[in-house]
Design goal:
Strands 2-1-3-4-5-6-7 form a 7-stranded mixed beta sheet. With 212 residues, it is an alpha/beta fold. 28% of the residues lie in helices and 24% in strands. It has 5 helices and 7 strands.
Length: 212
């Protein structure tokens, strides 16, 4: 089977590691945005949509058109029940600074929320786009849990240190990549994406750079 190049549309090392681990065994050579010399350093795609699906599609299509590569992009965020679903699509922009700055700001906003009302969910949508055929597919995953009062764990990224899974007694930041991929929102979406890639994209002819 022909090996295809799959562009993972991210600069995030942790996210790239999770995605490539979930796609192991497929006839794909995975690269990320940093590996594309035709793109300016630190290239990013604006995320103007009001849904995770909209942003994932925008990123996949933009990066696919610019590079000519089969592209996988995702958008994900944290939806807090006590905040009517916020920060949602604005999770990565909830407050300026680092991941730690964002989850600590969220903990301050939830300071008076009692334990039994601290439920939340991660939602992820993956979009796969082939610029050679213009085919696009999406899939989604949702991961329910509760938010702790203090962070725990040093793995993962984003809000993982404060997101607790009571079924396994760990935060997402205390899990290994393999363990997290079997449970998380992105892991669920990636399981579906793996099937879609295998059945619909791995046998297609890639678009060559000169055809862009």
């Amino acid at each position: 089977m022909t090996q295809r190049t799959l562009l993972i549309a991210t600069h995030n090392v942790g996210k790239y590691r999770e995605i490539t681990a979930a796609l192991q065994g497929l006839p794909l050579t995975c690269i990320r945005l940093n590996d594309m010399p035709h793109l300016p350093p630190g290239f990013t795609v604006a995320e103007p949509a009001m849904t995770f699906e909209g942003n994932a599609i925008i990123k996949a299509m933009t990066c696919g058109h610019l590079t000519g590569c089969l592209t996988l992009a995702d958008d994900a965020g944290l939806e807090v029940d006590a905040l009517a679903g916020r920060p949602g699509v604005h999770s990565a922009r909830y407050t300026p600074g680092t991941d730690a700055a964002r989850y600590r700001a969220l903990l301050r906003e939830l300071h008076d929320v009692p334990d039994h009302e601290r439920s939340a969910q991660f939602r992820a949508v993956i979009a796969i786009y082939d610029p050679g055929t213009t085919k696009i597919r999406t899939c989604e995953g949702i991961y329910r849990g509760v938010l702790l009062l203090q962070p725990k764990g040093h793995n993962g990224f984003g809000y993982d240190p404060i997101f607790y899974d009571p079924r396994v007694g760990k935060t997402a930041a205390e899990m290994t990549v393999e363990e997290k991929n079997t449970r998380s929102h992105r892991g669920q979406a990636l399981q579906a994406a793996r099937i879609i890639l295998q059945e619909e994209f791995c046998n297609a002819e890639p678009l060559k750079w000169g055809q862009i």
